[in-house]
């Protein structure tokens, strides 16, 4: 396999899906956005809780995630649904997406005269845009164009023993082909940051990595909170994980062995080639949404306990090293490397199995989360709202 | 950090420095397990049942020992642990991200 099938966007970027995305600027326009999605096939809306009364860094983060999701190359067209009085400016949002050259339209509920008229207008726009998108044909593209996120969630002891190292082998393969890999979850490298820091290609990168972990840990201390209240989670503990340090040491093997080229902010554009670290929460949906906003084409998601979640704009490939869970949750799981624990599947073969799935999904094969319509979306918050 | 797993193994040790093996089958108290450490097979009798994915001590550790898996510290023992015993949240605690302890040291603010 030397290529994937992608949609070439006007700015030269490659999408592996051709979504029509409906973005509410604010919680108040969620319902209108969802109604438009229900009425026009092959559209996806991203309802969220933000966009009103936010200030400073918190408001910027909402804007950056919405704009980044709109810019994701898997999105071919965007309809922004605004209420009209929110702090996230819909025209600014449209301007942040337009340089990609994709179709962008804005609807203002207050200006058009309420929900019914806004929904009607939205349906008309969506039908027209969808018809244009449906004329586009995917073309063969080099593997070096691909950017994947690596993520784990609902971990158990098999994650660190099997699925994460296997995903790491696949991540190394993509980097050897010239592609990009991003790993996140600052909370979940605590206790293992020294290993990642020793792999940074420049001293400043390793300092930044230590800095973001220290910043997070100080915040936990400032709050007087016990990390153990949420991490490892009750499911992690039932699965055999005892401490955050143990979980972290199992987590980091999913990004393979390449040098870390840089540490980027949550939702910041992910550079195309090599391995990067994104400062993000461990929370599954917030982390995947940040990677999607940063331009990842797909996320490989390892889990031992099992989770159904997907993403609004990028395929999420579910990988497990727990054969019992794979049998139990076959509706939700894409790849099983559980035979590694029986000693009948080598790390190399497990990595190849995941790599083949990445190439197939990047060429159009639907993931289980896509088939089931899992389009989760969530924005990480960092500051006060008024 | 990753190694080949022997076919039919019931527990795996990730690194020569480790104090624990991870069960890759449901194991009962009294079961004999064999694990490889530094390419040497060692046999151990389990003192507790060890569920799939959970850890068993492969050497005796006094309370307060920095305990290792993957060759790295994963926490500290809170009780004396003997080889063959279940190692988990009842006898090991994390060291990192412990705002509760930082707070207690300052006399508490709540």
Structural description of this entry:
The complex is a heterodimer of chains A (386) and B (110). The model of chain A has no long low-confidence stretch (mean pLDDT 95). Chain A has 2 domains: 19-134, Rossmann fold, CATH 3.40.50; 141-372. The longest helix of chain A is centred in the first third of the chain and has 20 residues, at 115-134. In chain A, 39% of the residues lie in helices and 17% in strands. Chain A has 14 helices and 14 strands. Chain A starts with a strand and ends in a 15-residue tail after the last helix. Chain A is globular and about 60 Å long. Chain A has 386 residues and is an alpha/beta fold. With 110 residues, chain B is mostly beta strands. Chain B has a single domain (11-105), classed as Roll (Archaeosine Trna-guanine Transglycosylase, Chain: A, domain 4), CATH 2.30.130. In chain B, the strands form 3 sheets. A 4-stranded antiparallel sheet of chain B has the order 1-2-5-8, with no helix packed on it. A 3-stranded antiparallel sheet of chain B has the order 6-7-9, with no helix packed on it. Chain B starts with 10 loop residues before the first strand and ends in a 5-residue tail after the last helix. The interface between A and B is large, with 43 and 42 residues.
**CA-based shape of chain B:** globular
C-alpha geometry of chain A:
globular
Count of individual beta strands of chain A: 14
Strand content of chain A: 15-25%
Q: Structural class of chain B, please? A: mainly beta
CATH class assignment of chain B: Mainly Beta
Tell me which CATH architecture of chain B applies here: Roll
Helix content of chain A: 25-40%
Main β sheet profile of chain A: 7 strands, parallel
- What structural category arises from helix and sheet content of chain A? alpha/beta
- Which sheet architecture does the biggest sheet of chain B show? 4 strands, antiparallel
Largest interface: A-B, 43 and 42 residues
Pfam families (chain A): GD_AH_C, GD_AH_second
Keywords (chain A): Hydrolase, Lyase
Family (chain A): Belongs to the UxaA family.
InterPro entries (chain A): GD_AH_C, GD_AH_second, UxaA_altronate/galactarate_dh
